[in-house]
Amino acid sequence: MDITSFRTFLAAADTGSFAAAAQRVNASPSSVTERIKQLEHRLGVRLFDRDKRGCRLTAAGRKFVDPASQAVRAWEIAQHVVSLPNDFTSSLAIGGQYALWGALLTEWLAQARSDFPKTAFRASAGASARLHRDLRDGFLDMAVAYDPVFHRDIHSEKLFDDRLALVSGTGNENWREQYVRIEWGQAIGVEISAKLKITPAAGLVLDLGRQSAEWLIQQKMAGFMPQKLVQSFLDSGALHIVEDIPYFDYPAFVSWRNDVDPQLARDIVGSLALSVAHL
């Protein structure tokens, strides 16, 4: 079983491009082509149709996606399990959106290690798109992000309610001239732009998670932030909510794979829910 080839196949299937797959798996385009060719030879089927626009899965390729994903997932689990000290009976790979670590997940992880002494944790941070991909591909067991994952093998539920508020480091005056677009997802970005008819006059887009708030404070600019994420800055007066601007609902979700032990999943989700009860 060639896990490297399976990962390469899944990357090409997801991106629709051998070149993009090469970037994802840190290989040259020629290596990707050779891996796919060898895989097709071993399976005795053609997995992709290729043209100038990229690659598309054949019928056989579509059938191979699930077995390849399961094989990669099994290998990841095996690698993690065999490396665990004997004191641990379970493991969990959990990822969180950058913005959520400082405000929530760092404290939760410290408590979780105490509450689940027999569970080994592997924690990572990333943008929601990458977390979703890693969850689908089996590199993560669970993810906490502002977007739910819609996939037949993944369950999602709302963790807590939040809303995007327009905040400023200076107050209400001239906020349009100081407005910076902060990246919280394409759909919500389109909704904000359409409703308020605003564009970032500063010619700047930030995707820095909670650190975006620090930029707004230091540079005396304005942008949309999850209110609970910046409540401490609002309480201290470092940031101010711009008046007469609508809020946009922006709840956070916890998503996990269906093949995670059901009891462990429920216990972890319950632990996360308790940790955000004060928000």
From TrEMBL:
GO terms for molecular function: DNA-binding transcription factor activity; transcription cis-regulatory region binding. It comes from Parasphingorhabdus halotolerans. The keyword Transcription regulation applies. Residues 1-58 form the HTH lysR-type domain. Keywords: DNA-binding, Transcription, Transcription regulation. Gene3D superfamilies: Periplasmic binding protein-like II (3.40.190.10), Winged helix-like DNA-binding domain superfamily/Winged helix DNA-binding domain (1.10.10.10). Belongs to the LysR transcriptional regulatory family. SUPFAM superfamilies: Periplasmic binding protein-like II (SSF53850), Winged helix' DNA-binding domain (SSF46785). This is LysR family transcriptional regulator. PANTHER family: HTH-TYPE TRANSCRIPTIONAL REGULATOR, TRANSCRIPTIONAL REGULATOR-RELATED.
